[in-house]
Amino acid sequence: MKIIIINGPNLNLLGKRENDIYGNETFNDFFEKLQKEYANLEISYFQSNIEGELIDKIQEVGYNYDGIILNAAAYTHTSVGIADAVKAITTPVVEVHISNTFSREDFRHKSYISPNVKGVIVGFGLQSYELALQSFLK
Ligand code: DQA
């Protein structure tokens, strides 16, 4: 089973970014553990701060992977382009957020992506990614 995690802007700073909200662990450390724990799956990882690169990656994997775990970060709340890409593809997408976006500022309550995904997992820290992964195993 081929699953990809796609992370949007500023998520390369996990571990040193607003630790009270996003925790102390780097994504690479978390990702290595996840790969070991689910060694039977083919899990890859892509991160970009650039909207068009995220769209290119969604298009590239969107017809031949079994699942996409997408944290579009700030673009969640702004990007019609990423929303359209998610709508265009056939691979199911689970949207994740590390923080509980609904307990934060109003502008984080709106997601352009949510209407076209299989499901949304919000607010469980990095565990959100693992819960999303498990949703593809059922
Ligand atoms: C985030 C929430 C977004 O509002 C924010 O812009 C992020 C991260 C999260 O995972 O909690 O960068 O997607």
From TrEMBL:
The active site is at Y22, H97. GO terms for biological process: amino acid biosynthetic process; aromatic amino acid family biosynthetic process; chorismate biosynthetic process; quinate catabolic process. The record marks R17 as: Transition state stabilizer. CDD domains: DHQase_II. GO terms for molecular function: 3-dehydroquinate dehydratase activity. It is an enzyme of class 4 (lyase). It catalyses: 3-dehydroquinate = 3-dehydroshikimate + H2O. Homododecamer. This is 3-dehydroquinate dehydratase. It comes from Aequorivita aquimaris. The lineage of its organism: Bacteria, Pseudomonadati, Bacteroidota, Flavobacteriia, Flavobacteriales.
